[in-house]
Structures are given as structure tokens and as C-alpha cells.
Amino acid sequence: MKRAAVMLKMIVCMKQVPMVSDLPWDPVTGTLTRDVAEGMMNPACKHALEAALVLKERHGGHITAMTMGPPMAEEILREAIALGADRCLMVSDQKMAGADTLVTSFTLARAIEIFCPDFDLILCGCHTSDSETAQVGPQLSEELRIPSIAAVEGLDLCGNAMRIKRVSDNFLETLEMDLPGLVTVATGFYVPRYASMSGLHDAFREPGILTVGARDLGLDDDDVGLQGSATRIMDIFSPVAKKENIVLKGAPKKIVEELLDRFDDTIGSLIRKDLKAVK
Amino acid sequence: MEFDACMKHKLVRKSVREFAETELGPIAHEIDQEARFPIEVVEKMGPLNFFGLQVPKEYGGAGIDSISYAIVIEEISRVSGSLGLCLTVHNSVGISPILKYGTPKQKERFVTRLASGECIGAFCLTEANAGSDAGGVETHAVFTGGQYVINGTKIFVTNGGVCSLPLIFAITDPQANPGRNASVFIMEKDMPGFAVGEIEDLCGMRANPVSSLFFEDCRVGPENLLGREGDGLKIGLDALDTGRIGIGAQAVGIAQAAYEASVKYSRERQQFKKPISSFQSIQNMLADMATEIDAARLLVYRASARKDSGRPFGKEASMAKLYASATASRVTGKAVQIHGGYGYSKEYDVERYFRDAKVTEIYEGTSEIQRMVISRAILAEPV
Question: Which of B172, B141, B169, B173 has its CA nearest to residue B157?
């Protein structure tokens, strides 16, 4: 096996998301009530970890699994250890609750600068299943002033850079990115492995894991959490699918005209034609 | 006293459930119908240490605690009772006696192959005239020319069709008293005189190749004798204590699957323009099912915790097995009842759960034997 001259130092940022499909949320703050739902590692983060594990197997390396979240999020870091990560870092503080994506990226960046400053590559999931913003990864790269490529399908070390494959529309792009850099990993290529029983056993050998709060990062209350957030959720609701049956009656010509009048936008977008222009 | 699962046990459950639902879920119905051992899934389980759950790391196992062990068996059995059976028999009565009574050489030679999943284990006590009465064993081993010559037939061997390192009970000293006349041997499938019988056509657990094993002038050296000559009964009873935790966990898993299917179905099935879950008769059944499963699970975990703490756990394991197996039968029966005609159809999984549950009251000590073990332990306690 060919090994890289330098051992890759990787950070996988991951998030615990609620397992249930009907997310419990706080109607006052408009944020998710995470402590009542059973948590799991965000599926896309599993793909990011798998990408890191493949790189480590191929070239050697060291993986730090990192999360920001409530104490119960420790579970996904233990899971990451069971799957093959070497070390974990937990960013957790009551004051960090309700953080938007911008302040989350800001907080993660400060933790990385202090606790793992010599990283080569940061891997994030391409989006989370609970909020679907896909913002934290790219924002984190801005905070750290490093290059980033989002939604990658495959990546490998090529000299001192990363060679990256990304599907864009109907094209497969091959890109090269200097290190240190950041990627967000899509869910189409890597198949996350299962935790072995031995890995699960080992993941709980160490009683505690490194947990840091706002003060450890030199941050004030105003810098983190809901207080530090630039955005507020104004409203959150479950989308309701509405079904309606409409019966058009009359002569065929009249029916078609009425159909086009009512649904020209919908039909047009399906067949990729501007039906208003046709009419 | 802590009743909530710790983070480790929660994660073990989630991880095994993910594996079972993804890899085994789509074929669980089919392997039962076709009575097929799912070797393609078993091959994936080896590298994940499912076949060396409590084997120390030095022999290639995972070294997990007994509650984690029970959770693994429960979660696999929740999806496929047959594979849960394969795992628990292999890990408990198939391996644990070698770990406890084997020499370092035997552990190196046999346990490593079992723990990797390269070889599947089995435990052969039952014969045509022996089962609950271990004293009725007729298979015998005669020591001659530096080797034991073994002759006999074992029946209803779980994993029989796929095992390659089964443990067998044989009489080594017919003159000795019943507690000291039997010994345990580690057999190897490629030995001359070792043959596998037809796969049994059973009511449930159909994806497990239960069969007879025949031994005709099978010659094994003293290096295949487990413990000392005459230790057979002690080794067997020890192994069964451990095995009963596994069967209890298996019964809980089957009952859990039947319960979950019943809750889902009762919410969907409409009668009299209402979901049947709105009727008190159904609610009463669901309440009883949930309560009994909870109680059974706690009994299984208590026996496991006692085992891990190094305290005697035979009585507790028997109580767990007795109650959990009866629970599995009752709960799966109610699940069929809730599903009505559909529950009696092979198209629905509850029919499989119903068939699989029954045997948990029979193997690794019938319910009647469990009551005997429990009552003996109770009556031996100081007044």
C-alpha cells in the first residue's frame, strides 16, 4: 500500500439529529427540542466519517471526531470511535443552545483553532436531516479562511492536494484542492460501515471525553448560542400536503383550455416548456 | 438501582438494530419460508465480531458485557429468531464452556476459529432417550490406544447443518455415578465417522439448520477432551446457565417484534369506521403485551448483570428464561389475534413470530426444568 509522506490529520464535524421523523420543536423559540427525541448521527455525517476512514486506511492518518451539541451528543462521538476515529472533541455549553448556522461555524472554528490547529482536512456531511441548511461546512471554511468544496462524491490524496469528484448537474467534475481545506461529503458514493462489537466495546473504555465550553474558547455569552446568532427562526411548521380533485366538464377543447389556464405553470415545468408563450 | 439504559447499551442496540434491519430485514420472511440459512449475512457478521461476542480480545473476540450480549441477541431475534438462535447457541453453549474449562492450547486452537465466524459452534446433549434427563445419554467414548473412540447419535442439534466445531456429551465411565460418568468433547467436522443428518422440518426457527449428528467410531485425542474426564455434567449445567440468558433475550426480541407489528397494525386497521386500537379489547391486549415484555426484559438484564458482577446467576437466568419464553408465546399469540385472519396468514410476519416463539419454552431446558431449577435454588436457601 502506497503511503503518503505526511500523515493526514483529519477532523470530521458531525451532528446528532433526532431519530424521529416528526421533530419536536419549541413553539416559542422556533428551535428543536433535542432532549426529548432519541438521537442518532446525522446520516450525511456518517458518509463524511466513512470518507475519512477510507483515506486513513489508504494513506495512514489521524481522525478527530468533533461535535457541538448537548451532552447527549457524546453518543455520536463514541460511535465515531467505534467506527475508527482516533480522538473526539465535544463542544458543549448550555449557553450555546439555539445557535444558528453562522454562530455554529464561528464556534467550531474557534474550537478547531485552539484544540486541533494543525489539521490537513476537515470533512462535514453535506447537510443535516433535521435542518437541511447545508451551510455549516462552507461557513466553517470561511471562518478558517481555507478552501472548500461542497457535496463531493469521492476524494483522494494527490501529492499534497486533494483530488475531488463532484457531480454537478449532468457532469462529473474532477477538482483539486490545496490543503488545508474542507469538504462536505454527499451521500451517493461512500457506504458507511457498521460498527463492530469490538469497536463498540472499545469506544467506552475511556470514561470521559474532552469537552470544552464557551469559556475554554475565550468566548463571551453574547458570542455564542441564540444570543450570538445573526438569524432568528420566525416560524416553523410541518408542511401539509393538500390534495384536491377537480373535475373539468364540457367539450374537449374547452377542457384543454381550462386545464392550461389553471395549470400552465405546473405542466410547463414538467415538460420544460413555457406554455404561456405557446398560448 | 438504575433502570435506564446507559449510553453504551443504547448505542449497542442502535448499531445492531441498524445492521439487523438493513441486512436481515429484507430476507427474514424469505429465509423462513425457504428454510434457508442466510450464509451471506453470516459472512458479514464475522468481521463485526458477532461470533465472538464475549470472547476476550486475545482470542479475536469483542469482549462485551453480558447486558450488551443480551441486547445483541434481542435485536437480531427481533428481526430473525432463527439467526438469533444461531448466534446465542454459538456464543453461549458453543463457546463459553471452552473459555471456562479449556486449556490455553484448546482456546488458541478452537476459540479463535469460532470467534471469527470461520467455524460455527453447537452444543449436543439431546438424544433419542435423553434431553431433560441428561442421565439418559447413550453416546459413549471409550479410551483405547491413547484415543477416545466415540459412538452415538445426537438429535435436534441447533446449527447442526452448519456447525464445524460442536461440543458433545458422551459417557466415559458407565460405572461411575450419574454426576461423574459423562465428559464433553470438542468435535471437528472433518473427522472420519462424523456425519450430519437431514435438516429437521420444524414448526419454527426454520432458517436454522437443526439436524442430527452421527458419530461412528470417531477418534479424538485427549486434546479434544474439555476439562477432566467426568466433568461433563458440571460443564453442561454451567453452559446452560449462560445459554438461558441468551434464550431469554431471544424470546424478548421475538415478543418485541410481535408487539411492534401489533401496535402498527391496530392503528391502521379500520373496523366500524375506527382504527381497532380505539377498542378497549385491543388496548387491553397491547397493555398486557407491553407490560410482560418489559418485565421479561428486566429479568434478562438482571441475570446478565449478576453474571457480570461474578455472582451466582443460575436461578435468575432460569427465571428470566422461564418468564421470557412464556411471554413470547403469549405475546405472539395475542399478535396473531390482533391481526385476525391476516395474522394467521404466512404473508404476515406475526405468523412467523408465533411459530418461532413456541420453541423458546422447550430448548435449553423446558419450562418445567426451569421451574425445577428455580425451586431447588429457593428451597436450598437458608430459612
Answer: B169
Alpha carbon A79 to its chain centroid, in Å, reads 17
Superfamily of domain A8-228: HUPs (3.40.50.620)
Q: How far apart are CA B26 and CA B40, in angstroms?
A: 13
pLDDT tens for A44-83 read 999 999 999 999 999 999 999 999 999 999 999 999 999 9
User: Identity (one letter) of the amino acid at B322?
Assistant: L
Compute CA distances B205 → A11, A77, B19, B132, whole Å: 46, 37, 20, 20
Q: A200–B14: do the CB atoms touch at under 8 Å?
A: no
Question: Where do the DSSP E strands lie in B38-115?
Answer: none
| B7-120 is classed CATH 1.10.540.10 | yes
Instruction: List, for residues A181-196, the tens digit of each pLDDT value.
Output: 999 999 989 999 999 9
User: In a mutagenesis test of the A interface, which of B11, B59, B64 is the best target, namely the one with the most A β-carbons within 10 Å?
Assistant: B11
pTM here is 0.90
CA gap B151, B218 in Å, rounded? 7
Whether residue A196 and residue B8 make contact (CB cut-off 8 A), yes or no, is no
Q: Which residue do the cell numbers 445573526 mark?
A: A230
Of B7, B19, B48, the CB nearest to A75: B7
ipTM of the modeled complex: 0.92
Does the pLDDT of residue A29 top 80, yes or no? no
Tens-digit pLDDT profile for residues A204-253: 988 789 999 999 999 999 999 999 999 988 887 767 778 888 899 899 99
E-strand ranges in chain A read: 8-14, 16-18, 39-41, 61-68, 87-91, 121-125, 148-152, 154-158, 161-168, 171-178, 181-185, 210-212
Sequence spans of domains, chain B: 7-120, 122-230, 234-380
CB A27 within 8 A of CB A87: no
Distance CA A279, CA A276 (A): 5
A40 interfacial to chain B (CB closer than 8 Å): yes
Q: Count CB neighbours of B347 within 10 A.
A: 9
For B62, the closest chain A residue by CA position comes to: A198
Q: How far is CA B339 from CA A173, A217, B81, B285, in A?
A: 53, 57, 20, 12
Among B8, B18, B62, select the one facing A198 at the smallest CB separation: B62
Architecture of the domain defined by B122-230: Beta Barrel (2.40)
Domain extents in chain A = 8-228, 244-279
Tell me which architecture the domain covering B234-380 has in CATH: Up-down Bundle (1.20)
Coil/strand/helix, residue B199:
strand
Neighboring chain A residues of B7 at a CB cutoff of 8 Å: 74-75, 78, 204
